[in-house]
Amino acid sequence: MFSIGTPHMWPTLLAALKWLMEIVQYAINLDVESTLFPQIEFEEIPESRVVFSYVEEAYEQFLAGEDSFDQLEQDLEKQLKLNCQGGKTNLDSLTAENSRLSKELEQLENEGDKVTEWRVKHKTCQDDLEKLTNYVQDLKTHKCQQEKLLKGLQEELLLLDMEYKQLQEENKKKRHIFETQEFSQADVERINMTRLELKSQIESIIKEMESIEQQIWHEEMIIAKSREQSEEKCIEYNKMAHKLKLIPLTAENAHGINFEMRPNLLHGSESTDFIGTIKPSLMRMKKDSNDKVHQLEARKITEMETLDQVTEMVSDKKEAVSMLDSKYNHLEEEISCHKTTMQAEFHKMQLEKNRTENDILSLQNPGYAVDEATIELQAAQKRCEESKQAQLKERNELCQVLQQAATIMMDSKSKTENQLRKMVEEQKKEVERVNKDADEFKLYTDNMKDKCNKLLQSVHCNTLQETD
Fold it and tell me: On the chain, which terminus has fewer CB atoms closer than 10 Å, C or N?
C-alpha cells in the first residue's frame, strides 16, 4: 500500500506520469498512414498501400459472399503498371527533380572547395568524440558505483522491511493483549507516559534527520564548489604549462612527460598522477633552473673579476703612458735648453769670428809681423772649424737620439692604446652580453619559479581539500 502524500513516493509517481504523457503525445503525433506505408521516391502510391487496399477490399467481398475477384485483380494490375512504368505526373515530377538536381550541381560547382572546412569539422568532431567517450567511461564507472550503492540500500531496505514486519507482529500481539486484558489506573498512566516519551523521541529523531539532510546538502554544495575550483585551477595550470612549453608531449620542455591535468567530473580528482609524475618532474625542472642560474652567476662573477683585472691593467698602462709622456716632455725641455746653449755658443763663436776678422784687418796694417799674424789666424780658424764641427756632430747625435726616442715612444703609446682599447671593448661587450644573458635567464627562472610555486601550491591545496 502506498500513500500519495508521502515525500518518498512523489519521484515514482512523477516518473509514471511523465512516462504516460510521453506515450500519449507519441500516439497523438503518430501518422499511421506514413508509418505503415512510407512514401517511396517517384511513386504516387506506395506498393504496400496498393496491396493492402486490394487485400482489404477482397476480404470485404469475401465476407459478403463473393468468390470471384477479377475486377479487383485488373485494378491491381493497372495500379502496379502505373507505379512501375510511370505516368504523365511521374514524368513531370522527374523533370522537376532533374532540373532541381542540375541547379544543385551548378551551385556545388560554383562553390569553393570545402574539404579543409570539413576536415577541421571532422577533427573537432573526433576531439568531441574522444571527450564524449572519456565522459561515457566516467559515467559507466559512476553507474557501477551507484549500482553497488543501490544494492547496499536495497539490502538495508530488506532488513528494514523485515524489522518493520516484526514490529507489526509485535504490535498486533501487544494490541491483542491490550484488548483482552484489563488495565489499572497505574498501567494507563504508565502507558501514557511511555507514549509521550516515544512521541518526543520521534520528534527529536525527525529534527535530527532534517538537520542531517541540511548538513548533507551543505556538504554537497561545498564539494561542488571545490570541484569547480579544482577545474579552474586545472585550466589555469594547463594555460601556464602551455606558456612554459610543457604541454603537449612534443613540447620543448616536456621531455616526453605528460604535464597536462584533466579533472575527473564525477570524483573531483585529477585523472593524471600529480604526486607520482608531475610534481617530481616540476621539482627536478626547478632544481635544473636553479643550477643554471648559479652557473650563470658564477660565470658573471668570473667575468666581473676579469673585467676588474683588465681595468687594473688599463690603469697601469695609463700610468706608464703618463710616465712616458712626462719623460718625453722632459727630453723636449732638455732639447730646448740644449738648443738655447748651442745658439749662445754660436753667437759667441760668431762674435769671436768678427773679432778675429777685425784683428786680421788691424794686422794687415804696416808695422805688424805678417807671418805671426797669419799663423795665429790659421790656428784660430782651425780651432773655430773644429769646435763648429764638434758642435754640429753633437747636435745631429742629439737630434737622432731624440727622434728615435720620440718614434719609439709614439709607437709604443699607439700600440698600447690600441691594445687597451680593443681589450676594453671586448671585455665590455662580453660583460654586457653575460649580464644580459644572466638577467634574461634570471627573469625567466624567477618567472618559472613563481609559476611553479603557484601551481604546486594550488594543486597541493586542491589535493588536500579533496583528501579532506
Answer: N
* Interval 291-302 mean pLDDT: 84
- Quote the DSSP letter at residue 65: T
Indicate the Cα dihedral angle 435, 439, 444, 448, nearest 10°.
120
Residue with cell 610534481: 279
SS3 270: strand
Q: What is the mean pLDDT of residues 172-192?
A: 77
Question: Which residue in 450, 345, 323, 331 sits closest to 391, CA to CA?
Answer: 345
SS3 for 40? coil
Cell 691594445 identifies what position?
A: 419
Taking a C-beta distance cutoff of 8 angstroms, is the pair 274, 260 a contact? Answer: no
Q: Which pTM was predicted?
A: 0.31
Count the helices and strands in the chain (H runs, E runs).
Answer: 9, 0
Please count the CA atoms within 13 angstroms of the CA of 366 that sit on its side-chain side: 0
The C-alpha cell at 391 is 758642435
CB–CB of 241/263 below 8 Å?
no
C-alpha cell at position 75: 485494378
Decide if 451 contacts 240 (C-beta within 8 A). Answer: yes
Number of neighbouring beta carbons within 10 Å of residue 217: 10
Distance CA 227, CA 465 (A): 10
Residue 276's contacts (CB-CB under 8 Å, 6 or more residues apart) are none
What whole-number distance in Å separates Cα of residue 177 and Cα of residue 191? 14
Burial class of 237 by CB neighbour count within 10 A (0 to 12, 13 to 18, 19+)? buried
Spatial distance between the Cα atoms of 194 and 176, rounded to a whole number of angstroms: 19
Q: What angle do CA 148, 154, 155 make, to 5 degrees?
A: 95
In Å, what is the CA distance from 367 to each residue of 79, 363, 371, 374? 186, 8, 12, 14
Residues 6+ apart with CB under 8 A from 130: none
Residue 227 burial by CB count (10 A; 0-12/13-18/19+): exposed, middle or buried? buried
* Burial status of residue 263 (CB atoms within 10 A of its CB: 0-12, 13-18, 19 or more): buried
Average pLDDT in the 8-31 region? 83
DSSP secondary-structure letter at 261?
Answer: -
